[in-house]
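Researcher: Re-running this chain for the archive, since the previous output was lost when a drive failed. Same request as before.
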Amino acid sequence: MTLDERGLDSNGSQLRTNASIAAEESEPFMGEAKKSHVNADSHVPDPEVIGVSEPVLEEGVNQQTRAAKIHDFCFGIPYGGIVLSGGLIGFIFSRNPTTLLFGGALLALSTFSLKIWRQGKSSLPFILGQAALAGVLLWKNIEAYSLTKKPFPAGFYAVISAAMLSFYTYVVISGGNPPPKKKLKLAASEQS
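Model: Regenerated structure tokens:
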């Protein structure tokens, strides 16, 4: 018999027995952890492991992977607001309504895109319209920057317009806006 640092009497056989009991008790937990892997075929977790009684639809998962990760109007509305406010300031000083009209059109297209998306319809025409306006603004601001070499406002708007044109291109290539979560739940309940 030995005395450990806590003042308890124990021998080697009791320690081995206690260690084997602890290992046996932890096996059910290890088994459950091994079951929670993702199926290689469908990329959907086992419904019994995650506690879902109804089957998980592969179509809903595939539909989400074909959509962009962020909606066009999440960046489009602020972008339209920035261009509109810059256009308003420019209109006050130079009486040139061009940027004011572009900002208003961008803001309107982004808002309509949000409205159509909430109805569960495709907002692709509005995304394409925003992309076209971002491309025109990029061209216009690159020309203005090349003539004036002023980083603000022409260089600033050129950089933002290039970023937004890239973003709209990403949204179009990835398949448009992600579907509303309400529509996914309705589609799942209709198919079951």
